[in-house]
Structures are given as structure tokens and as C-alpha cells.
Specification:
There is one protein chain. By secondary structure, the protein is mainly alpha-helical. It has a domain at 9-62. The chain is built from 3 helices and 2 strands, in the order H-E-H-H-E. A two-stranded parallel ribbon has the order 1-2. Helix 1 packs across helix 3 and helix 2 packs across helix 3 (47-57). It is globular and about 30 Å long.
Length: 82
């Protein structure tokens, strides 16, 4: 399956620009989920692109409660009555 973000030279350029932006924000090698989502909104790109850029840049995204960046989704279990 082809990678949706690296099919053209323009898309490859965009991902490497995003890697640089992610690295600039994540000075200590980590980026919070709110920072990643804000960057995606500011750049008008999907959060997945920011996540891929972080992966390529060796940056860890932390504190994601929605599961957008690889963290398990938090769900409540419904207890069943017998």
C-alpha cells in the first residue's frame, strides 16, 4: 500500500518541512498531544501528518488520550449485571 504523504515530491517536501517544525517545538525530544494537534491546526494538515513527521524526526508524542498518536484509547467498561 502506498504511503499517502510521500507520493509526490511536493508531499515529500511538506513532510520534511513538518519534521523541522516538530523538532523546533519539541526541544527536549517530546511533543505533547495538544502541541501536536495545535501544529496540525496551524498548518492545516491532518494530525496523522504531524505524527508521521514526529516519527521521522525521532520525536515522541506524549499524553494523547484520544489514541490519535499511537496511545491506546481510553474507554469505560460497562459492568454487566447478572
Amino acid at each position: 500500500m502506498a504511503n499517502d504523504w510521500t507520493n509526490s515530491s511536493e508531499e515529500k517536501e511538506k513532510i520534511w518541512e513538518m519534521v523541522a517544525k516538530v523538532k523546533k517545538i519539541a526541544g527536549n525530544g517530546v511533543l505533547s498531544c495538544p502541541q501536536a494537534l495545535q501544529l496540525a491546526a496551524d498548518e492545516s494538515v491532518p494530525p496523522l501528518l504531524v505524527g508521521r513527521a514526529a516519527d521521522l524526526g525521532g520525536i515522541k508524542i506524549i499524553g494523547c488520550q484520544l489514541g490519535c498518536f499511537g496511545a491506546p484509547k481510553v474507554t469505560k467498561r460497562r459492568e454487566e449485571s447478572h
